[in-house]
Amino acid sequence: MQSKARGFEFSPHPSFMIKDLAKKAVLRSGMLKLSAGRLGPNAAILMYHAVQADPSLHADLFGGIAHSEAVFRNQVELLAREFRPMSLSEVSEYIRGNGEMPKRSVVLTFDDGYADNTETARPILNQVGVPATFYATVSCIEEGILPWPSRLRYAFRSTSLSEWTDTENKRWTLRSPSEREQAYLASCDVCCKLSGRAQDAFVARVAKELETCESPEARGLMMSYDQLRALVRHGHMIGSHTMTHPNMAYVTSDEARNELTESKRLLELKLGVPIKHFSYPCPALSPHWNAETLAETGMAGYETAVTTDNGLVRRGNNLLCLKRIRPTKTVEGLRWNLESAFAGRAG
Ligand SMILES: [Zn+2]
């Protein structure tokens, strides 16, 4: 889950459509590919979350983080046709300086551990021949519950109350979708600093205050260990996305260590494969990692860790804070983000 995807979705303004036309003209001109040739070898690590046949069905749980299956298929086909998909392990070797990074390298990653990753995304990836890395939120896998941002989002969207008072006695009115969103985001700023039982207690308290229950659709949306094992059998890699999805820069070092080591230990125990890769959650507040986090990640034995910071990776980068690129929700948007990133422009 990531902060930018939490808001409600709005219809595009005409000015966006003009920008789209301008982007298409730049793409057609080949200008970006010419600029890309002047930069050194680099790779784009793409950050996905959920892939669903109809993302609007679970919008009260997932917000805007789900890709439609049809768009995802077209994006994967674009990547295979116009770019160079490879595994995170291969790219990490190039970053270490072992071999020359092929041009236009892309890596697919998925955060959180949703069941649709294996039910919907995996068959497409395997048909097209694209490997991916899936980062699992281990407590959510163990308990079959969605990460806390989804549980809080559902509480704020489904409550029939028109008001909520936060932990600092600030009153929030909940009369419109945007008021509910603001209150939800305020609750995220508190919850992201909590982990484990304290986090569970906070989510339960908010749900009680808002007089809501768990969504009847929420069960079965996280992967099982069997599904994670199936991903490994199909040639993909599993990484950790913590135990309970806190902001790792805001929890204590003991909590951060537990999130890193316990999730690694459990995944290795249940899957029987070494877990070398980590993804820092970005649920709310900034930053979502710091120097202390990186030190803990290294000490826990991870070889790579990805952030939600925007950008490409290249030789010599710190493997414990690798940048990623957002794929956007359209094929042309993905092409633009990649071409402009490879050309050294803002995405
Ligand atoms: Zn996440």
Descriptive overview:
With 347 residues, this protein is of the alpha/beta class. It has 14 helices and 13 strands. The protein has helices at 14-29, 31-36, 59-62, 69-82, 88-96, 116-128, 138-143, 148-158, 177-191, 196-209, 225-233, 253-271, 291-299, 331-342, and strands at 42-48, 50-52, 66-68, 84-85, 105-110, 132-136, 163-165, 171-173, 237-240, 277-279, 304-310, 313-314, 322-324. Strands 1, 4, 5, 6, 9 and 12 form a six-stranded mixed beta sheet that branches. A three-stranded parallel beta sheet has the order 10-11-13, with no helix packed on it. A two-stranded parallel ribbon has the order 2-3. Strand 7 (163-165) and strand 8 (171-173) form a beta hairpin. Helix 4 packs parallel to helix 6 and helix 8 (148-158) runs antiparallel to helix 9. The model is unreliable at 1-14 (pLDDT under 50). Zinc ion binds at residues 1, 111-112, 241, 245, 281. Zinc ion is lined by residues 1, 111-112, 241, 245, 281.
The small-molecule ligands in this entry are: zinc ion
Q: Could you estimate the helical fraction of the residues in percent?
A: 40-55%
The count of helical stretches stands at 14
Q: Give me the count of strands.
A: 13
Largest sheet: 6 strands, mixed
- Would you tell me the overall average pLDDT? 92
Spatial separation of the terminal alpha carbons: 20 Å
Beta-strand residue fraction: 5-15%
Structural class assignment? alpha/beta
> What value does the Rg take, in angstroms?
20 Å
Shape: globular
**SSE order, one letter for each helix or strand:** HHEEHEHEHEHEHHEEHHHEHEHEEEH
Low-confidence stretches: 1-14
